[in-house]
């Protein structure tokens, strides 16, 4: 079925009860979908959702649109499709209830035919709500795209095109295509299905056709086995994609419907001796967990933003993403296919025991089959998806009933798709919280993050205990790959206890990547590591922060950042896509960067005591442009895969330090700040292996704006990087200013933000304070033409960038 975007001319406002609505209309604002109803609401330290949502409030919202329905649609089938509505979506047409979808991450659709009034305007409304139902920022509303489908009553079923490629050799690959047709008439119809396959270069490589008879009110599936000669196999290093196009023809040969799907030809293998293989090659998963929000856009999912996020994560060294802790959106899956990023797609954060007051646990037992079906239906044709995760840190997993649920869910996935592997993010400590609390008279269990942080190194010992071994064995046995959250202490142990077990680090502490990756490389049954997290996110505010404990008013708060913390502050990349220093450390650990990397501790804070969490990294910036007196003490870290590093300032040696003396892949220097060129030279066996240089700023600083692309698609986004820098491009990271963004032309400011975790500045703009000299503005086109973006700041000359929007 052909999807047409249904994104314009919506309104949203607070949902009123029936009697409230009689008293007066709610205030509603015009919006373009996708839209996040919570992002721009006031934040407060008193928010009931608290630190989990970044101190955003919840709410109940009503979206509305007037849809003109022509009379000729009376002979058609009209379907509306939502890629995701958070949460408890209820769809009404002209006030009549149509469908309810409780899961905020499921795509769902509804046939509108019984409710439409032909030849007149129809009112479509969607209710959505969010309130204490998530452990991170969820947003609310119609945050993913909406589509309208108007089709002949005999048509391809929605998501009814499936492709498998299990029969592959060097000479050819057999592409098996299944296309389902729905007949909503009162008569038997004999149709003809045509298939054609296009290769990565756009050439036609296979085609066929066959008749298909469909009984009235029924569905039928046509299948074809198409031999593709000399297949180009999909792989993370060369993500070659094919496309299958199908046509549906009536008895007279007229085409009445079409559909298409991109797919990849690839072969998966798994065993404890060689781990995961793709097309016969061993692949280790350099993984990142990611939440679904898009930073300054809130929860909004737009294809251009998802593509940028995947591309930048791949550029930073990751080759795999885990959707934490919900099904990945359609646009991000497509981006992973294009860029060669493998996917662990996760079903849920809870089963039948709740983690938050109003989460989905109460209805999980009734809807788990529909949730699995929705996830598989969306993922089936995507070659990037290699793992289905049935859950994350499930509370009941270590009980007999939890083991029963584990088997039920794993088999539910396999019944619908046996071409991928099934895993689960198991945290043996959280699964045994009740037993551990009972074992300690003074035990108090707060939120799981604080509990794990407080346990420190004891967590590794407890995860390797016989209690965890015995209570999780049955749940682990139903999996193809056992995912362990923060349980690297089990990796070698399980090779002895369970020699057929394959393991993945489904969630690990970022600062331990040197240890984690060493285990992944050394142990063949451990197929990869997924750090928490790859891209910073809203909510779980301050979980990775660095506190200076001598600050006025400092009080320990565990992993909960006090208001106005907004971001988690634990991503390798911040919410604008800028790489934090840990990202370069990880790249070196992965063996993907030969040159060393300079990370400087802020000299303004030298010597101050700090408090961190297990998700923290050092408060460092890759800069040698500081507004401090010459001679100020400063700590300099150099990340390197080398024996030693020499530090030079304007050619003069500041000393040589061994790499790995305190931490693997790191050399540390205590020195003084003086303007100039700071160079780190890495050596192994006395021979130079690489160098990295930083320069101080010179001259007057200036305001700079750079568009990542000067030409945009009509449904795309423009990303404009804003910096304070000198004439040679050196960014001044400690002279932050308020910048204001203005838009002229056919576009709007979709969001503006920085990587600052503690802030009260709204993403709606138009102003924001730069952070480490940087900010990001996001522009959304409203029509074709030229958009002028003007950036201003007090004391600086204004700057402009122009982007063109295609027709």
How would you explain this protein's 3D organization?
It is a single chain. The chain is of the alpha+beta class and 807 residues long. The protein has five domains: 4-151, Jelly Rolls (Sandwich), CATH 2.60.120; 154-263, Immunoglobulin-like (Sandwich), CATH 2.60.40.10; 277-393 and 402-419 and 458-536 and 571-575, TIM Barrel, CATH 3.20.20; 582-695, Immunoglobulin-like (Sandwich), CATH 2.60.40.10; 702-805, Immunoglobulin-like. It is built from 13 helices and 47 strands. The strands form eleven sheets. An eight-stranded parallel barrel has the order 21-22-23-24-25-26-27-28, surrounded by four helices. Helix 4 runs parallel beside helix 5. The model has no long low-confidence stretch (mean pLDDT 96).
């Amino acid at each position: 079925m052909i999807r047409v975007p249904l994104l314009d001319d919506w309104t949203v406002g607070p949902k009123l009860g029936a009697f409230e609505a009689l008293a007066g209309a709610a205030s509603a604002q015009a919006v373009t979908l996708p839209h996040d109803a919570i992002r721009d609401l006031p934040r407060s330290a008193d928010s009931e959702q608290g630190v989990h949502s970044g101190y955003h409030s919840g709410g109940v919202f009503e979206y509305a649109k007037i849809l003109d329905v022509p009379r000729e649609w009376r002979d058609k089938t009209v379907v509306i499709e939502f890629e995701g509505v958070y949460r408890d979506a209820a769809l009404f047409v002209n006030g009549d209830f149509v469908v309810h979808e409780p899961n905020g991450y499921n795509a769902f659709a509804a046939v509108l035919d019984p409710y439409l009034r032909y030849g007149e305007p129809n009112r479509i409304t969607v209710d959505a709500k969010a309130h204490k139902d998530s452990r991170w920022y969820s947003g609310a509303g119609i945050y993913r795209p909406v589509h309208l489908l108007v089709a002949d009553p005999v048509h391809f079923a929605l998501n009814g095109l499936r492709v498998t490629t299990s029969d592959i050799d060097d000479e050819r690959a057999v592409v098996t295509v299944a296309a389902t047709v729905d007949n909503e008439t009162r008569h038997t119809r004999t149709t003809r299905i045509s298939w054609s396959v296009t290769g990565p270069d756009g050439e036609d490589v296979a085609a066929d056709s066959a008749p298909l008879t469909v009984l009235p009110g029924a569905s039928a599936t046509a299948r074809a086995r198409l031999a593709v000669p000399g297949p180009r196999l999909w792989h993370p290093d060369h993500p070659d994609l094919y496309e299958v196009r199908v046509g549906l023809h009536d008895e007279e040969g007229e085409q009445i419907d079409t559909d298409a799907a991109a797919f990849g030809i690839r072969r998966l293998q798994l065993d404890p001796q060689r781990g995961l293989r793709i097309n016969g090659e061993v692949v280790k998963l350099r993984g990142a967990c990611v939440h679904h929000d898009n930073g300054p856009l809130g929860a909004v999912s737009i294809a251009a933003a998802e593509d940028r996020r995947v591309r930048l994560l791949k550029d930073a060294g990751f080759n795999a993403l885990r959707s934490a802790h919900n099904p990945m959106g359609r646009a991000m899956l497509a981006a992973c296919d294009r860029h060669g990023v493998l996917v662990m797609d996760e079903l849920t954060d809870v089963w039948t025991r709740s983690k938050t007051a109003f989460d989905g646990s109460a209805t999980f037992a009734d809807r788990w089959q529909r949730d699995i079906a929705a996830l598989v239906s969306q993922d089936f044709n995507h070659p990037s998806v290699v793992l289905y995760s049935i859950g994350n840190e499930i509370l009941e997993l270590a009980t007999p009933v939890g083991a029963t649920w584990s088997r039920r869910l794993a088999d539910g996935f396999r019944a619908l798709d046996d071409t991928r592997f099934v895993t689960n993010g198991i945290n043996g400590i959280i699964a045994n919280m009740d037993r551990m609390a009972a074992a300690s008279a003074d035990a108090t269990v707060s939120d799981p993050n604080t509990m794990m942080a407080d346990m420190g190194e004891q967590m590794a010992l407890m995860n390797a205990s016989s209690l965890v071994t015995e209570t999780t064995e049955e749940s682990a046995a139903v999996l193809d790959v056992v995912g362990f959250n923060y349980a690297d202490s089990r990796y070698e142990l399980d090779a002895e206890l369970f020699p057929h077990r394959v393991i993945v680090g489904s969630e690990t502490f970022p600062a331990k990547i040197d240890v984690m990756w060493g285990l992944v490389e050394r142990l063949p049954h451990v197929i990869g590591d997924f750090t928490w997290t790859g891209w910073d996110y809203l909510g779980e505010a301050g979980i990775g922060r660095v506190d200076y404990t001598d600050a006025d008013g400092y009080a320990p708060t565990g992993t909960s950042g006090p208001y106005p913390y907004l971001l988690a502050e634990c991503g390798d990349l911040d919410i604008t896509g800028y790489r934090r220093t840990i990202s370069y450390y990880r790249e070196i650990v992965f063996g993907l960067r030969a040159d060393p990397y300079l990370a400087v501790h802020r000299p303004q804070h030298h010597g101050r005591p700090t408090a961190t969490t297990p998700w923290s990294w050092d408060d460092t910036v890759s800069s040698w442009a500081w507004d401090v007196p010459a001679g100020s003490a400063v700590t300099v870290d150099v990340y390197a895969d080398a024996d030693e590093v020499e530090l030079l300032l304007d050619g003069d040696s500041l000393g040589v330090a061994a790499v790995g003396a305190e931490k693997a892949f790191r050399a540390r220097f205590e020195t003084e700040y003086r303007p100039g060129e700071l160079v780190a030279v890495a050596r192994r066996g006395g021979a130079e292996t690489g160098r990295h240089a930083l320069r101080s700023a010179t001259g007057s600083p200036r305001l700079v704006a750079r568009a990542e692309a000067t030409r945009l698609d009509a449904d795309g986004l423009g990303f404009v990087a804003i910096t304070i820098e000198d004439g040679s491009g050196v960014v001044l990271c400690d002279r932050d200013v308020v910048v204001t963004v203005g838009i002229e032309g056919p576009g709007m400011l979709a969001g503006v933000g920085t990587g600052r975790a503690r802030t009260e500045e709204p993403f709606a703009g138009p102003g924001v304070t730069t952070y480490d000299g940087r900010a990001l503005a996001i522009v959304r086109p409203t029509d074709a033409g030229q958009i002028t973006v003007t950036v201003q700041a007090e004391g600086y000359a204004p700057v402009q960038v122009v982007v063109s929007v295609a027709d």
